[in-house]
Design a protein that fits this description.
The complex is a heterodimer of chains A (about 650) and B (about 190).
Chain A lengths: L2 E2 L12 E3 L11 E4 L12 E7 L9 E6 L16 H16 L8 E7 L12 E3 L10 E8 L3 E3 L13 E2 L6 E2 L5 E4 L1 E3 L4 E8 L8 E3 L11 E3 H12 L23 E3 L3 H8 L3 H10 L19 H4 E9 L11 E6 L5 E6 L2 E6 L6 E3 L2 H4 E3 L1 E7 L1 E8 L13 H8 L8 E2 L17 E3 L4 E8 L4 E4 L6 E3 L8 E7 H5 L7 E11 L8 E12 L5 E4 L6 E7 L4 E6 L3 H14 L4 E7 L15 E6 L12 E4 L5 E3 L3 E3 L1 E7 L2
Parallel strand pairs in A: 5-6, 5-7, 7-14, 10-12, 15-16, 18-28
Antiparallel strand pairs in A: 1-29, 2-22, 3-4, 4-21, 8-14, 9-13, 11-12, 18-24, 19-20, 19-25, 21-22, 21-23, 25-26, 25-27, 29-42, 30-38, 31-37, 31-39, 32-36, 32-38, 32-42, 33-34, 33-35, 33-37, 34-40, 38-41, 39-40
Helix pairs in contact in A: 1-2, 2-3
Chain B lengths: L1 H6 L6 E2 L5 E3 L8 H7 L2 E15 L2 E15 L5 E7 L1 E3 L6 E5 L10 E9 L5 E4 L6 E6 L5 E4 L21 E3 H10 L8
Parallel strand pairs in B: 5-9
Antiparallel strand pairs in B: 3-4, 3-8, 4-5, 6-7, 8-9, 8-10, 10-11, 11-12
The chains are: A mainly beta (about 650), B mainly beta (about 190).
């Protein structure tokens, strides 16, 4: 039995772990550090660095990119070049316009010329888009931003990048760009986080680069070929200061996610096209950080076609507290789902964090939750509507904390990213009966709703599996059943003599095409028996304890099936076990009964599998079963299916 | 390419590390075989130092790794790993460079690294596939050594941290050694 439940271990010495690389991003925004206050940290000789967002100062909007013109046509690592730099530049403009044309945001980014740089991009006060990248660069593309880490007064003649040339002038009031692409800032005061230089580099190297396409007809299933517009729309989102998000599936009918989701499925043209278009999440954050109509002059002043941010958006604010650790959570993903449309509207990351900075080395260290995590606060920008507010751990599925932010990594390092997803209710607490019920929360333009304070649940996950090794089964026939047995003894051992809320089954689900929603024919909780050897099982599918048809899985994540009346179900099961009527529970998931399956791969929705290797991290428990007819369930000996039964010890 | 490779896999299974999704701002999502083949060296070890520095006009952090085992290639007792991004306060106007989803290594962290030469510094290496080639080495629930991308394995609190959900991207070090042995054209040494 692996009933994963948070435990308290003897306290270890608190280690000071230095964050290896520089600032990344967090909380809906890309991160940098603020050391303005110069507050000593608990580590002698070091100071506290607050995680803050990077942003463009209004004096530098419109923000101007230059395209590196030293590679034309665009190199194609898979064959002869076929995209001209002019065509690529047209795509850049189109992608930038996607952000610039948001009516509620005053962000304005443009390509205004070229730069002849035969080398790599760098901190040179030129905002460059380039197809050149170092040999060691193994990404499709990256946006690299250099920002202030102090509140700073830039003075006339200051050389910001150290090239011996002034980058600051008292003779101007807005940023200017010379013919060579160098930006000059107007003298004056700037907040920490102000972006000084942003570059986007795209990988076209033969060794590990991508073929970038610009025409719709060229978007294909070749995974080393990617739509340029989709790629740079994402990168320019970073360039304006947005971080990655967890939103990869907008609703039960829309399998695409936010443009700022960190993965792009280059084998699925529909997913590539989908990433070109901004989701509500992307739009909301670009608007929140650059709110239109919030100044009388300058870029934030209303222009024809603009819509005031406050006319469209309201804010939902609250906090996330870990229900077991009783600590504010750094980097939990909080979401607002529209109750009418069922669509995920916006997401945010909880927490305000800080780290210890070593001026001698540039190293950054985390020390303890009490020092590093100041609060678990979050803000969600929402339009008029009713929402349910959910919270999810950044635990690797669908994205690891390392792909989100330092803030989220701090939460992970301190063991906070380990709770089950759930929804907010009034009086939210660690012990809940129905974690799947979300109390309606109103989004009202020009209004801030406070007090949506979430406490993550203290639950017991019966996980008869280890880490995920495979997903499958790609060859499953329509109507195939996957089942995992939970012996009565496991359930009885959770809270001996006490009551249980049997609340949900969580299925590790996956889909091969990112544009497709993994929908299963049904999910069930049933009773059943096994033969003496456990080789075959008989499931009472005709009398399910809980059942849902057209079960909506999640793309590369655990998908919860919330049972109705968990307290009643708990009593029923415990009584059944006590009387001998219930020997096992089975969590069941059924593949769709008809083919072909949707998506360019035409593969069935899949489940996470543990095992299949010569050695495994946990035993192969022999509790997973497979059936093609719903009558005979055969034991699977080489895998543990990753289905989790989730219960709460009732008070 | 990855997708076609998947379809060619005999039987019903598809390795999760072979999924077709690619990193938008980081790297092409690679299988373990990809990582092995693209690596000049593969090492396990402990991070003993971090230092921000400039390479031309690029601000990076160099992690010093004290090598405990070389799984592929040849490496000395320490290797220098260049991580994108860093902080520099030793200038009139202090700055930081931010790179979305760049790999990070903690001081004293035990790591497994798939590395490729970083030509911009002497004897330097970069992590293959951006953050995909960096794993934290920790003890698993059954006492076996795991290489994982789940930072909770570090669990500096030393309490309250048993993972409930089971993060992805975790491999047994023994299993990885076996796979490296079975990957063709591998030159190993200890």
């Amino acid at each position: 039995m692996r009933a994963n439940r948070a435990k308290f271990f003897p306290s270890l010495a608190l280690l000071a772990a230095a964050l290896g690389s520089g600032p990344v991003f967090a909380g809906g925004w890309l991160e940098t550090y603020d050391i303005t206050a110069n507050v000593p940290s608990p580590i002698p000789g070091q100071i506290t660095a607050r995680l803050i967002r990077i942003f463009h100062d209004p004096r530098c909007i419109p923000f101007q990119f230059r395209v590196n013109n030293t590679l034309d046509p665009v190199p194609n690592p898979l064959g002869p070049p076929f995209v001209s730099l002019a065509d690529a530049t047209t795509v850049f403009q189109k992608s930038l316009a996607t952000w610039t044309q948001i009516p509620t945001s005053y962000i304005d980014m443009r390509v205004t010329g070229t730069v002849a740089n035969p080398g790599f991009r760098g901190f040179d006060m030129r905002n460059e888009v380039t197809f050149r990248s170092p040999a060691s660069f193994g990404a499709i593309a990256a946006s690299l931003a250099t920002s202030l880490i102090n509140d700073t007064t830039l003075q006339d003649g200051d050389d910001i990048d150290g090239d011996g040339v002034s980058d600051v002038s008292s003779a101007i009031t807005t940023c200017t760009v010379d013919p060579a692409g160098h930006v000059t800032f107007p003298a004056g005061f700037y907040k920490a986080g102000t972006i000084l230089d942003v570059d986007v580099q795209l990988n076209t190297k033969t060794s590990n680069g991508l073929r970038f396409t610009v025409a719709d007809a060229d978007v294909d299933t070749n995974t080393r070929s990617v739509d340029l517009q989709a790629t740079v729309t994402h990168e320019f989102g970073h360039s304006l200061g947005l971080s990655h998000v967890l939103n990869n599936q907008i609703s039960a009918t829309k399998g695409t996610g936010a443009t700022m989701f960190p993965f792009i499925d280059t084998g699925d043209p529909a997913a590539e096209f989908g990433q070109r278009k901004l989701s509500e999440d992307d739009i909301a954050w670009a608007s929140y950080f650059y709110p239109e109509g919030t100044a009388a002059t300058g870029p934030a002043a209303l222009q024809p076609g603009d819509i005031p941010f406050n006319l469209v958006y309201g804010l939902i604010k609250g906090s996330v507290t870990h229900g077991v650790l009783n600590e504010p959570v750094a980097g939990a993903s909080v979401s607002a789902t529209n109750l009418v449309t069922g669509e995920l509207f916006s997401t945010a990351f909880s927490g305000t964090s800080q780290v210890s900075y070593n001026p001698a080395t540039g190293g950054l260290s985390v020390i303890s939750p009490a020092y590093d995590i100041l609060d678990g606060n979050f803000t969600l920008p929402v339009k008029l509507g009713l929402y349910k507010i959910g919270v999810e751990a950044v635990d690797g599925l669908p994205v690891p904390a390392g792909s989100i932010s330092v803030n989220a990594q701090i939460g992970a390092i301190f063991g906070q990213q380990n709770f089950n997803e759930e929804f907010w209710n009034p009086g939210d607490s660690a012990i809940e009966v129905q974690p799947g019920f979300g109390f309606p929360v109103a989004g009202i333009p020009n209004f801030t709703l406070n007090g949506i304070n979430i406490v993550t649940n203290d639950q017991v996950n019966v996980n008869n599996f280890g880490s995920r090794d495979f997903v499958g089964f790609t060859g499953s026939a329509p109507g195939t059943y996957y089942a995992v047995r939970v012996p009565a003894s496991q359930i009885s051992a959770i809270n001996p003599g006490g009551k249980l809320y049997i609340q949900e089954a969580a299925y590790d689900t996956f889909v091969f095409d990112a544009s497709v929603v993994p929908i299963f024919a049904e999910a069930d909780l049933v009773t059943g028996t096994v033969d003496a050897s456990g080789a075959t099982a008989t499931l009472d599918l005709a009398h399910p304890l809980a059942k849902v048809t057209n079960f909506v899985g999640q793309d590369n994540d655990f998908a919860p099936f919330y049972f109705p009346f968990p307290d009643l179900l708990g009593r029923l099961v415990q009584q059944g076990i006590a009387s001998g009527q219930i020997q096992n529970l089975f969590m069941v998931l059924r593949v769709p009964t008809t083919a072909p399956y949707p998506g360019v791969s035409a593969l069935p929705p899949s489940i996470g599998l543990d095992g299949g290797n010569a050695t495994n991290d946990v035993p192969l428990y022999g509790l997973s079963y497979l059936s093609t007819d719903g009558v005979t369930f055969n034991q699977v000996n080489n895998f543990n299916f990753r289905f989790s039964l989730i219960v709460t010890k009732a008070p | 390419m990855l997708k076609y490779a998947m379809r060619a896999v005999p039987g019903l299974l598809v390795a999760i590390l072979a999924v077709p999704a690619l990193w938008a701002t980081t790297a092409v999502e690679r299988t373990e075989t990809d990582l092995v083949q693209e690596s000049a060296i593969i090492v396990t070890g402990r991070c003993t130092g971090l230092q921000s520095q400039w390479i031309d006009r690029d601000l990076v952090t160099v992690a010093t790794i004290q090598v405990s085992e070389v799984l592929k290639g040849s490496a000395g007792p320490t290797v220098s790993v260049v991580l994108p991004g860093g902080v520099d306060t030793h200038r009139r106007i202090p700055v930081a460079m931010s790179v979305a989803a760049a790999p990070e290594i903690q001081q004293q962290e035990n790591v497994l690294l798939f590395l490729t030469p970083e030509d911009r510094i002497a004897a330097g290496y970069a992590v293959v596939g951006f953050s995909q080639g960096k794993f934290t080495v920790a003890q698993g629930p059954a006492g076996k050594t795991l290489a994982t991308q789940d930072l909770s394995a570090l669990n500096l609190q030393g309490r309250g941290g048993s993972s409930r959900r089971g993060a992805a991207k975790t491999i047994l070090l023994d299993e990885l050694r076996r796979r490296i042995r079975e990957t063709p054209e591998i030159d190993r040494q200890r």
